[in-house]
TrEMBL record, chain A:
Post-translational modification: 4'-phosphopantetheine is transferred from CoA to a specific serine of apo-ACP by AcpS. This modification is essential for activity because fatty acids are bound in thioester linkage to the sulfhydryl of the prosthetic group.
Coiled coil region boundaries: none
Functional pathway: Lipid metabolism; fatty acid biosynthesis
Listed name of the protein: Acyl carrier protein
The keyword Cytoplasm appears for this protein: yes
Role, per record: Carrier of the growing fatty acid chain in fatty acid biosynthesis.
Compartments where found: Cytoplasm
Pfam family, one: PP-binding
Cited Gene3D superfamilies: ACP-like
Organism of origin: Occultella gossypii
Signal sequence bounds: none
Gene: acpP
InterPro entries in the cross-refs: ACP, ACP-like_sf, EAL_dom, PP-bd_ACP
EAL domain boundaries: 1-82
UniProtKB/TrEMBL annotation, chain B:
Matching InterPro entries: 3-oxoacyl-ACP_synth-2 (IPR017568), Beta-ketoacyl_synthase (IPR000794), Ketoacyl_synth_C (IPR014031), Ketoacyl_synth_N (IPR014030), PKS_Beta-ketoAc_synthase_dom (IPR020841), Thiolase-like (IPR016039)
Pathway where it operates: Lipid metabolism; fatty acid biosynthesis
The enzyme's E.C. designation: 2.3.1.179
Enzyme class: transferase
Full protein name: 3-oxoacyl-[acyl-carrier-protein] synthase 2
Free-text function comment from the UniProt entry: Involved in the type II fatty acid elongation cycle. Catalyzes the elongation of a wide range of acyl-ACP by the addition of two carbons from malonyl-ACP to an acyl acceptor. Can efficiently catalyze the conversion of palmitoleoyl-ACP (cis-hexadec-9-enoyl-ACP) to cis-vaccenoyl-ACP (cis-octadec-11-enoyl-ACP), an essential step in the thermal regulation of fatty acid composition.
Annotated Ketosynthase family 3 (KS3) domain residues: 4-413
Length: 82, 414
């Protein structure tokens, strides 16, 4: 079943909170993973791996560098599950 | 060793089956409490494990650490971090350049839980589900790395691996780092998190574990004629070692002096010790000589004594030979009777108990010894603590490991 963008954002926020301790409400679509949320590359790969499982999508490793903001990730996951 | 600086202990930390910190764990040890209990994990019945109990942490790590910390660190690193934070705070969080601080945290097995869980993930879900921190979590130096980051240790971060001698060896390594001028302060200890079906099944297959499933608290009984193996434990012990003049200059509280170290290897077998105990005896004698103390100065030994049929007797005889008739006035305690066997964490937790015995002048009890070995050539402290004499004293901690690793440490009052 496809997840809505709101569901995806909430799910990502939960994963980011688990991994980094950042409050879930800090995870907004306009935030940059590196510049705003201070997420390093290994943490980003962890988040992507967990998101693949949670949303039952495939996020190719070479695509991860294009996911600059939370919004980029939400859009990618929404389209990938379509 | 007059050309080398004296090294003292200025901080202690642990998380153990007896308590979440040193005061709680030491009080429980003096009270003769057991930290061993029945395992409640589903996998015990799922795999029909032959051993259904262990010395689990009294305070689970997830109650102390943040969720990101428990997700990013193997349990062995989690336990080391809890112990290191307590020890560092206990030492007054000394302020000195990181280049003068070392971290030596040992482990016997490393991140075995992470390793096996990652394999389960591959098998069940495929390679894409393996998390990128798997290797940094499972590597045995992970606890040393995390502790070095925690205290800003830049003089070197090291991980001795010598099975159940690892924790004692780490403290010895830290002692040498300060003696040779590499560091002024070293955070040293050992950790283990191996309560998992794989280590339990493997140790059980060696017939190394007690199978007293109907009496977990009574299962670890060093020197008792009915002992039937060791009890697996988990946890970490960390102590802060410091150059004595550095500690005095900053007005630090000094628990004891780390006076000497003796290390040997049996070159005999990859599992059981040399039955003659020659390597253990040599480690003991070397440690006393290294500390510049005589057998007559020794009042207490925290023995390695794991409760295996073969091991305890070898150690008792080796100690007797090393101490001679002075063994008659040496109180010997086997605290694994209460904690179980922390493997790579054992030598560190038991060094803390040895240090506290000097500080409080009390040797902790050995519980469960209802029927001691006849002709035991040592003075075993049973059931209740025994007072240690006033004045200058020395106390010894033994740590021995599969593979024939022998590490003996000597502590004296400061």
């Amino acid at each position: 079943m496809a997840h809505s963008e709101e569901d995806i954002l909430a799910g990502l926020a939960e994963i980011v909170n688990d991994e980094t301790g950042l409050p879930a409400d800090a995870v907004q679509k306009d935030k940059s993973f590196t510049d705003d949320l201070d997420i390093d590359s290994l943490s980003m790969m962890t988040i992507v791996t967990l998101a693949e499982e949670k949303f039952e999508v495939r996020i190719p490793d070479e695509e991860v560098k294009n996911l600059n903001t939370v919004g980029d990730a939400v859009s990618f996951i929404a389209q990938a599950q379509a | 060793m007059s050309d080398q600086p004296n090294v003292v202990v200025t901080g202690l930390g642990t998380t153990s089956p007896l308590g979440g910190d040193v005061p709680t764990s030491w009080a429980a040890a003096l009270a003769g409490k057991s930290g061993v209990r029945t395992l409640e994990q589903d996998w015990v019945s799922q795999y029909e494990l032959p051993v259904t109990f262990a010395g689990q942490l009294a305070v689970p790590a997830e109650e102390i650490l943040s969720r990101p910390e428990t997700r990013r660190m193997d349990p062995s690193a989690q336990f080391a971090m809890i112990a290191a934070r307590e020890a560092w705070a206990d030492a007054g969080s000394p302020e000195l350049p990181g280049e003068r601080i070392g971290a030596v945290i040992a482990s016997g097995i490393g991140g075995v839980i992470t390793l096996v869980n990652a394999w389960d993930t591959i098998r069940d879900k495929g390679v894409r589900r393996v998390l990128p921190l798997t290797v940094p979590m499972l590597m045995p130096n992970s606890p040393a790395a995390y502790v070095s980051i925690e205290v800003g240790a830049k003089a070197g971060a090291h991980t001795p691996v010598s099975a159940c001698a690892s924790g004692a060896e780490a403290i010895g390594y830290g002692l040498e780092m300060i003696r040779t001028g590499r560091a002024d302060v070293v955070v040293a200890g050992g950790t283990e998190a191996a309560i998992h079906p794989l280590p339990i099944a493997s140790f059980a297959k060696m017939q190394a574990l007690s199978t007293r499933n109907d009496d977990p608290a009574g299962a670890s009984r060093p020197y008792d004629v009915n002992r039937d193996g060791f009890v697996l434990g988990e946890g970490a012990g960390v102590i802060v070692l410091e150059r004595e003049d550095h500690a005095i200059a900053r007005g630090a509280r000094i628990y004891a002096r780390v006076a000497g170290l003796g290390m040997t290897s049996d070159a005999y077998d990859v599992a059981p010790p040399d039955p003659t105990g020659a390597g253990q005896e040599r480690a003991f004698r070397l440690a006393l000589a290294n500390a510049g103390v005589s057998a007559a100065d020794v009042v207490h030994v925290n023995a390695h004594a794991t409760s295996t049929p073969a091991g305890d007797g070898v150690e008792a005889k080796a100690m007797r030979r090393a101490l001679g008739d002075d063994a008659d006035h040496v109180t010997v305690s086997a605290t694994k009777s209460m904690t179980g066997h922390l493997l790579g964490g054992a030598g560190a937790l038991e060094s803390i108990f040895t240090i506290m015995a000097i500080v409080d002048r009390q040797a902790p009890p050995t519980i469960n010894v209802s029927d001691p070995e006849p002709d035991l050539p040592i003075d075993l402290v049973r059931d209740s603590p025994r007072a240690l004499r006033d004045g200058d004293i020395a106390a010894v901690n033994n740590g021995f490991g599969f593979g024939g690793h022998n590490a003996t440490l000597v502590f004296t009052n400061a």
